[in-house]
Each structure stands twice: as structure tokens, then as C-alpha cells.
Amino acid sequence: MKRLPITPLVAAVPLAVVAVFVVGAQWLAPDATTQDIYTGVTPPGTDGHLFGTDQLGRDIWQLSIAGAGSAVIGPIVIAIGSMMLGLLLGTLAGYIGGGLDLVLSKYADLLLALPTTLIALVVAGLVDGGYWVTVLVLLVLFSPTDIRIARGAVMAQATRPYIESARVLQLSRTRIMFRHILPNVLPIALATMLLNVAFALVAMSALSFLGFGVGPGTPDWGRQLSDGRDLIGQNWGAVVVPGLLIIITAAAINLMGDWLQERFEQRGAQR
Amino acid sequence: MNALELVDLRVTGPGGPIVSRMDLTVAPGETVALVGESGSGKSMTAKALTGLLPRGVTATGAMRLGDTEVRLDDGPSALVGLRGRRISLLLQNPFTSLSPVHRCGQQIAAALPGGGRGDTAEVLRRLAEVDLPARVARQYPFELSGGMRQRVALAASLAADPLVLIGDEPTTALDVTTQREVLNLLARIQQERSMAVLLITHDLGVARERADRILVMYAGRLMESGPGADVFSSPLHPYTSGLRDSEPPLAVRLERLPAIVGSVPRAWEIPDGCVFAPRCSRADHACTVNTPVLEGGQRRVACWKPLAAGEHAQPTAVAFTETARRDDDLVVVSNLTKRFGPDSPPALDDVHITVAAGEAVGIVGESGSGKTTLARCLIGLERADSGTITWADGETGARRAQIVFQDPTSALNPAMTIEAALAEALRAGGLDRSEVPALLDLVGLPVAYARRRPNALSGGEQQRVAIARALAPRPRLLICDEPVSSLDVSVQAQILNLMNELLDELGIALLFITHDLAVVRQVVRRVYVMHHGRVVESGVMDELISAPQHDYTRQLFASVPGR
Ligand SMILES: Nc1ncnc2c1ncn2[C@@H]1O[C@H](COP(=O)(O)OP(=O)(O)O)[C@@H](O)[C@H]1O
Ligand code: SF4
Ligand SMILES: [Mg+2]
């Protein structure tokens, strides 16, 4: 008799909703960027605007739906990219070891010592913002954690008897690395990736809150937050809706990642 | 009055019942052995009686410790204040009960009746009781040898003078010679204190040698109970007799060990009716419908068709006819020396061995004697400091030698299907994957297993796969490092039979490494005895048994329990 997994179910609901927002924004929120300066700010519950409008008369709810894309796509790219970078470099460091390991570990240590958001700010400011520049900078800054995790997992696998058996069969290093070690490290890397999506989502939103990342006028939760600050007296929805969306999405992804990680650890322990 | 009385113990876990309807009594000064293969519920019984069940596992039943009644239904809190004082638990691995950051003296002191504040004299007295010198009080557990550590754990669990001591495989992790010392010590203290001992073990030899009464457990139920002298000499239950027959004898090499088919069911596989029915050669329809209960007087058995007197004569043992050794050497090892650190004693010290083509050779010795290091040097996983390994023929790479490890679970890649693993090994020997079914057949596994992953197989089946993988490239030498030590006796017999069949069929050479003399006896003709990295004696098994030359060899034979 298996206990129903409550955690992933609870987390899956908001994630599914956000996914629908991302994919269906153009149908769900066709008027997201339609301005109506004459209406200006209206409070929640105004006719036709569930959560009111901002100072440009844009519908907060539609704007938030349209903002889902830039809020989650960048973080997903960051997490996947840094996972691949981490797996590649971590596997090389962990399995080949020696000088390569030393260099890669020092590189990871260096990056880890840097304050992520601050560096992203500086770089984004230097090369004049841009969404994808921010994504790239964050990707590089996120990778040391993945390198470390992959390296540790690879080293844990490398001394296991099944790897020794593979060595006794005289299989090539490449084959041992990619056919034997990698599939057993992948679950841990995937769980870490999910957690990174959550971190990156918060980091990206923070950056666009500070004015970096997406260009002006583009729907984005972080930017909505910073724009909405001035309107809080007239329309609390302008701040609360994107704010809640950020919190709920990040928390749901985090929950999912934690749950997966726990499961993989349990499975690992049973072996 | 009995020291321990247990009525209708039931332990239930998330996967279903773990222990069902267990009754048990142990008198002061008496030793009762609870035997059974892994997963039969022995440890869970011990944990239920001491209130140490893991989360998600609950117990019901009534227990009496001397004159104190305990209702196990009330949960672990019922045993607070009694654990340690009335009933105490000694575990296989002392590291789990001893704290790594406290000195041994402090740990014993903390367990003394008064909470033991600074009672140095009493601590020293307790250490002396377990034959340990006073200096141990100031040492940490990791500074001690396995045997000494287990003595400290024993002193700690006896500190509050319990009526009942439960030992859960207390000597399983120790070498045979140390095992004997610790068991002797335990017996002496038990007598002095008139303490009741419940000895949990999978080792029938230990049970036979040490117990006044033996209880046989299988899949969470008691199958049989009776006086220690009778249970294994005239078993009533088919499982008991199968278990006994699976044990390899030291005195003779058998053509074939009588093995029980199949393996111990996992919690969710336990059948209705008699739990042993799927593996029982006497089972009929009634057995699969009605559950037998433990009945009888002094000797009790839970079986609809118990064995009658005379029916349990040892199956006719067909002694193996040994063939003479061929004289074309496959590999010659000379002067092999290996140290792992500049200050550590040598793991291998000037070792010489030879294996002829097609010959089965054994290496026996206690843990740390250098057996595994020798194997790893031979197979190329380790490099010796000096000495030579000379292979006779031109065969190189994967076709020269292959290895089977002790723990089959970690020896197989969990992410790979059996088919992929075997195909890869075949390719390493220049062979085609179309031979996978033949390979599975060779090790006695159904061809349908090809699509499974290792975690869908039992330990014995996994070891068969590991053997198949090692044989796949058709090596000239197969090295097996403790290949049956982590398996249950009933499965161990199956694997030993398989190895003998394979040797017959394939004509390859075998280097069989083990600490268990009776096991190696069943597979090889010639052995090397290793001690502290040296080969202290070698020769034909029969001669070694009848006239061991070296002191250490003699000691090794004398320590084998229950003979
Ligand atoms: N922590 C646990 N939680 C739930 N079930 C467990 C746990 N540990 C062991 N079991 C189950 O309890 C049963 C008996 O195990 P155990 O008492 O360890 O047997 P033994 O000591 O005879 O080897 C097995 O089916 C096992 O799967
Ligand atoms: S009850 Fe039947 S199946 Fe069970 S042990 Fe006895 S004979 Fe075998
Ligand atoms: Mg156990």
C-alpha cells in the first residue's frame, strides 16, 4: 500500500496554471499591453478588470498572465543550462580528477564566493541590460553549485563495485562516464535543476524589479512589482497579484524539487 | 518465574505484517536462540521488545519482564525506564549503539544505575568484567578493534544489570576467532548473573553451540521450537530441515548441496496459508489455504505435515570425486608486496600463489588478512609495490580474468537492464549480444529477466547476474571475492551448486576468496591460508583439515562454530 504523494500534487496545481499562462497568454490575455491612459489606475473589482488597472490603464490580471513567460522561461533556461554545464564539468572533474579537478574546483569556488545578484547587476548594467544577457550571466553564476553537486555524485558512484566491474571489463573511460555514471547522477542533477529554477525565478524578478532584464513596457512580474509600488494606495492588486505569483510559483517549484531530491536519496539508500 | 514472557506479539509496518502471533519465554540463565534468514523479522522482534521500532512500525502484545507487566500496544513510552535496566539490546554493529565522540569510560558510566557520576572504580570493574584493560576507559570507540568495541558495547548494555539481554547478531561482523571469544565471554557473564539471553542469529552453528532452546523464524512467523540439541538434529518442519541441509559441511565436499528452491519472500509477497508453501517440497493444496499454528509440547511445529522421526536423516551425501591438478600454470604470483601507507603494516607481504589452467583454488583468512587486495592486484584494480604477476598465455584484457564481488546489489548498475549489462560484457569479450539468453540460462535465470533492472531481482538472482556478466567475455580465470557472504544460507547453497556446475561445464579456473572454511570446501580442492598479508599455509583441503601445520590454521578450524 503506497501513501499518496501529497506534496507533488499540491505543487503541481499552481505549476500547471502557470504553464497554461505561458503557453496560452495570447488567447488568455489578448489585451495585456493595450493601454488606456484615460482610464488610468482603477482599483480591483472595476468593471471588466478583476484586479483593476495600472497607471497606463493596462489590465493587471491580463498583464500578469502575459508576464508569466518572461518570469519562468529565463529561469528554466538558466537552470537547464547550468545543469548541463555542471554535469559536463562536474563529471570530468569527478571522474578524471587530478589537475583538471583542481582547476575546475577552484573555478567553482571562485564563482561561489561571488555575490550572485550583485554581479548580475554589475554585468547587466555594463553591457546595458537585455533579458538574455541577464539569463546568460545568471547561468554562469549558477553553474558552480551544479558542478559541485555533480562532482560529488560522480565521485560517490566511481568507487562503487559496478564501476569497478566496468573497469575490469576494460570499457573505455568515455563509456564508463556516460553510460554508467551519468545515468545514476542524472536524478540528483534534475532535482537540483528544479530548485535552481525557483532560485533563478526570484533572482530574475529581483533584477527586473531593479530595472534590469526585460525592456520597459514588456509584461514581467518583477517589473510589475516595481511599477506597482507607486500605485499601492490606488490599486493594491498591481503589487499583490505579481508578488503572489512569484511567491507561489517559486514555492511550488521548490517543493517539487525537495520532494524529488528526497525520493532519489531514499532510492539511493535502498540500493 | 521467567525473566521474559511474551504473548501474541504482532509487529506491523507500512508494507503489512512483519511479525505475526509470536509467543516467547526465556528463563533466568537460559539462552534462547532465534534463528532465521534475513528479513524473517528477527531484528524487528528485538526492536519491538526494547521499544526501538522505527517510525511507521507498530507493535501489539503483552510482555512481562520479571514482575513488571508491559503492554506493547502503549508504544515505545511503555519501555522507558525499563530499557537498559530490565531489558537491554546489543547490536551487530557497536558503532550504532556507541557514541563516536565520547570516551568508552564515559559511555559505560552513563549507563550505570545511578547515572554514574565519576564512579571510576565501578567503570574499571565493568571493563574488567568484559576482559578489557583499564586504558580502554580513556579511548574512543574508533581506536579499538572490532572485538574490543563489541566488548565495550556489551559492558554498556549490561551496566544497569538487566534481567534480559537481547543480542541481535552480536558477533556476525566479527572474525570466527574473535566471535568465539566474545560468545565465551557472554556465556560466562550470563552464568555469573543468571541473566536471560535472547540470541538472534542467522548462523545455525552459533545457535546449535550456544542455545538451550532454538526458535526458527520464517517470514515473520515461528516455524518450530525445541531444545537446542534436537531442533537441527531431528527437525520437524520442512524449513528447518532445508535450512540445516543447505549449510555446507566442513568435513566433506558434496557433489551437490541440498538447497531450498526460491528465496525468502519480501513483505508484500508473503502468501496466504502456510508462508513456506511456495518453497516447500511437501506442500499440497490444503497448505496454501489454511495457516498452520505453532503446536505441541516441548517441541512445537507450525506445519500440517511435519516430518516424522527418521525422515530427517541427513540426505545421502555424495562426496565429490576430486580430479588431479593440471600442471600448466595459468598465473604465477611471486613476491607480491603492497602497503597502503608508509606506516601501515603491509596488506600483502611477499605473497606467492599459482593457479593452474582450469583449477579451482581457494584463499581463506580473516578480514584484513589481504585476500581482497590480492584479488584486486590480480585483476588490475590495484597496483602492487613490488613482485610479479605472470600470466601464462597470450590472453589479455577482459578475456584474461573477471571478478564477482560480495555485494551483488552494488555490483550492478541500477540504471541498466540485465540485457544491456550482459550485452556490454559480451561485447567486451568480442562476442555478440545474441548470446544473452544463453548466458541467463547458464546461470539458471529465466530469459524474461533480460528486460528487468537489478532492483526487481532478489539478492541471489542479482548474484547470478553478476556471475553471468563475469563469465560473458569467456575469461580464463574467474575471481570471486566472498560471493556468498551476503546471501542467506538457502540461497548460498544454490549459488555454490551453480559455481560447481559452471566449473564443470566451462573448464575455467577459479580463485575463490572467503572467510568461511566450509563454503570454500565445497568449491575448491586446494587452498591458501592468509594471515596479516602473508600466505601462512597452503595445500589440498583434505590434508589441511586432517593435519593443519600452522598455528593460525589450527585456530581457524577450531573456531568454526557448532562443529
Ligand atoms: N525501517 C523499517 N521500516 C519498515 N519495515 C522494515 C524496516 N526495516 C525492516 N523492515 C521490514 O521488516 C521485515 C523484517 O526485517 P528484519 O527484522 O530486519 O529481519 P531480520 O533481522 O530477520 O533480518 C522485512 O520485511 C523488512 O522489509
Ligand atoms: S504446512 Fe505444508 S507447505 Fe507448510 S511447511 Fe508444512 S508441509 Fe510445507
Ligand atoms: Mg537482522
Give a short summary of the structure.
The complex is a heterodimer of chains A (271) and B (563). In chain A, helix 1 crosses helix 2 (60-96), helix 2 (60-96) packs antiparallel against helix 3 (98-113) and helix 7 (173-209) packs parallel to helix 8. By secondary structure, chain A is mostly helical.
Number of domains of chain B: 3
Give the names of the bound compounds: adenosine-5'-diphosphate, iron/sulfur cluster, magnesium ion
Give a count of the beta strands of chain A, DSSP E runs of length 2 or more: 0
Structural class of chain B: alpha/beta
CATH superfamily of the largest domain in chain B: P-loop containing nucleotide triphosphate hydrolases
CATH superfamily of chain A: MetI-like
Mean model confidence by pLDDT of chain B: 89
CATH topology of the largest domain in chain B: Rossmann fold
The total strand number of chain B stands at 21
Work out the helix count of chain A.
Answer: 9
The major beta sheet of chain A can be summarized as: none
What can you tell me about this protein's structure?
The complex is a heterodimer of chains A (271) and B (563). Chain A has 271 residues and is mainly α. Chain A has one domain (19-270): Orthogonal Bundle (MetI-like fold), CATH 1.10.3720. Chain A is built from nine helices and no strands. Chain A has helices at 6-28, 60-96, 98-113, 116-126, 131-158, 161-168, 173-209, 221-228, 237-270. In chain A, helix 1 crosses helix 2 (60-96), helix 3 (98-113) packs across helix 5 (131-158) and helix 8 (221-228) runs antiparallel to helix 9. Chain B is an alpha/beta fold. Chain B is 29% helix and 23% strand. Chain B is globular and about 75 Å long. The A-B interface holds A 1, 3, 160-162, 164-171, 179-180, 183-184, 270-271 and B 14-16, 379-381, 397-398, 401-403, 405, 407, 409-416, 424-425, 428, 455, 466, 469-470, 473. Bound molecules: adenosine-5'-diphosphate, iron/sulfur cluster and magnesium ion. Adenosine-5'-diphosphate binds at residues 13-14, 18, 36, 38-44, 54, 56-57, 267 of chain B.
